[in-house]
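Researcher: Batch entry, complex prediction.
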Amino acid sequence: MTDLAQNTLDGLFLGSSYALLALGFTLIFGVLRRVNLSFGPAIMFGCYAATWVNLNFGVGLMALALITVAGAVLAGAYVERLCFAPHRNGSPIAAMVASFALWMQFEELATIALPRHIYDFPPLHGGTPLEFGGLMLRVESLVMLLAAIVMCAVLWGILYRTRFGVALRAVIDQPQAAQLAGIDVPRVFVLTFALASAIGGLAGFLIAASHEQVTPMLGMWSTLKGLLAMMLGGLGSLPGAVLGGLALGLLEAHSQWFLGPQYRDLLAYLLLFVLLAARVPWMTTRSAS
Amino acid sequence: MSALLEIRDLVTAYGKIEALKGVTLEVQQESITCLLGPNGAGKTTLMMSIAGILKPRQGAIQFGGENIAGRPPHAIVAKGIALVPENRLVFPTMTVLENLQAGAYQQGDKKTIAEDIDRMFVRFPRLKERIEQQAGTLSGGEQQMLAVARALMSRPKLLLMDEPSLGLAPLVVEEIFRIVTDLHRDGTTIFLVEQNAHMALKVAQHFYLMEQGKVSFSGTPGALAEDEVIRRAYLGSSKT
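Model: Structure tokens for the complex:
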């Protein structure tokens, strides 16, 4: 019983990091109808920038968080300008392949700047986990869950309470009518990329701090988890992204416990396959709000 | 009267295919000008070119003494042109109120926006009843009214309307045309694309016939017998 509760808790914490990644992914997909494979690598770039600064100058945690987010936003804007702006009305495949090329760029850049495969990343707390009635709670996990809840609230506020939010939802809903309403759509694209990358950067910082290490694989890992969570929640739906992330986390935590770590990813992809094959209703809609 | 909009030798192409092959026409200040023609004549292409969605290859679009051809859509809205697009294109998952707010995107002042929204609800009382409803759940006629109201929220000097009666029941079509004449009476200049030539000729002061990417006739509604206009508007004249 305690195991089940512990696994569920772990799954929720893991899932909240996936939810953050999926939120960023979904914003970009919802607005552009394009898959950005470089989403994760841009986050990894932010983490590496922070690690590099930390190794050379030794800065505090807050500064590391800021550098990670700033690095991810910068890398995200670079991806938008190079991969998505030129293909705005063109082929979605061209944009996706271009974003794959930038993925390779980010990985190469990371290994040139920091050639060892693994670097330490300072933990948020570092102490022993807290214990509540037999359940273990890591401070990092709690912060992750809190960050996910706060980001959802902030994102909701931006989408439903600001002028930019109206513009963003208008672009998601009906891009041509958004242009006709006088919305500067290319500007909305860039700002959306910046916003999504900032959310991703925050997730990246928390993930790196919770793993206490960074590797170039963080890029691929973030893209795969974000993509999977986004698809589980139904493409382009923001609440779906959060639910998809949490579901993925729970599934992974439980399957790892009951079946063993080697089945963890297999089961997640199997579930995605079954859901897609069964054409569950929420996956066939393309609405974003 | 002077021309608010002057289009000269406008060419717009999709790849190698020219949909507009040198269109020249004028819309007079405070008029209703109507554009008729068969499907594929290039009417929607012309509207999209004026609104900046499509980039013309050649020619000029003079609006208020300035050439706006090739400017981006948001810059053209800022100049005072709003297009009610074909098939309405409301924002389906946003509420009626949010659709109107999106239409006022370039209006800075919150108080003015609130006043404009109130004015829209006076003009379109049906929209007020549906204020919190998602636009995608409205009927076709209501969506058309919302699309018109959304365009008016940008306070345009020139209102472009692309087939506002498309797919609507006769009674609703009557209502849409009543709104068109109301707007005109209140001082809005209207440039209207219509399939319903009979209704369009009743409200317009001037009309153009377009065929195969060119203006083939220009005149006042009495200048050509209505059945001749309708025949050419639906079938084109080249076959006779």
